[in-house]
Amino acid sequence: MPLRIIFMGTPEFSVPTLSALVEAGHEIAAVYTQPPRPGGRRGLDLKKSPVHQAAELLGVPVLTPVNFKNAVDRQAFRDFDADVAVVVAYGLLLPEEILSGTRYGW
Question: Do β-strands 27-32 and 37-39 pair in parallel, antiparallel, or remain unpaired?
Answer without folding.
Answer: unpaired
